[in-house]
Amino acid sequence: MVHDDGRIFFQKRSPARKLFPDTWDIVGGHVEPGESVEEALRRETTEETGWQISVVLAALEPCSWTGDDGLARVESDFLVRVDGDLERPRLEQGKHTEFRWLAEHELDLLQENRAPDDTMLRRIVEQGFAALRLLGLS
Question: What is the pLDDT tens value at each position of the chain, 138 positions in all?
């Protein structure tokens, strides 16, 4: 999610989460049976923030990874604008503990509570900021 001033939205996963506990993350989730990727994107955005997507700005390169649970995943990420009070997301109780809008120069925060070699999120977000520059939005 992109703020009007070019910052990107992050939320901190709760310490009780199985995957990536107590780390910063972007909004996301799983595609449910019978659901398209875009439908899942819209549903997850509303579930995790209370906001509604107004426009999809860009699709980023898919990312493949294997979690600590051993399951292989392919992640699709998008830059979107949302409608709603951007200073008051409705975080999912028990799943997320706080939020921040970060500028590109603030991305070191994303390594908090992550292994030094766990740079996947940062790479995705750097790709997002590059897309914003190409779109003339940063």
Answer: 999 999 999 999 999 998 889 999 999 988 999 999 999 999 999 999 999 999 999 999 998 888 777 888 888 999 999 999 999 999 998 999 999 999 999 999 999 999 888 888 999 999 999 999 999 987
**Is the model's pTM score more than 0.70?**
yes
Topology of the domain covering 8-135: Nucleoside Triphosphate Pyrophosphohydrolase (3.90.79)
38 close to 117: Cβ distance less than 8 angstroms: no
| CA distances for 116 relative to 88, 111, 112, angstroms | 31, 7, 9
In the chain, what is the straight-line distance between the N-terminal and C-terminal CA atoms, in Å? 13
129 SS3 class: helix
Token reading at 13: 């996963």
The continuous run of DSSP H or E covering 100 comes out as strand 96-102
Q: Are 71 and 126 in contact (CB under 8 A)?
A: no
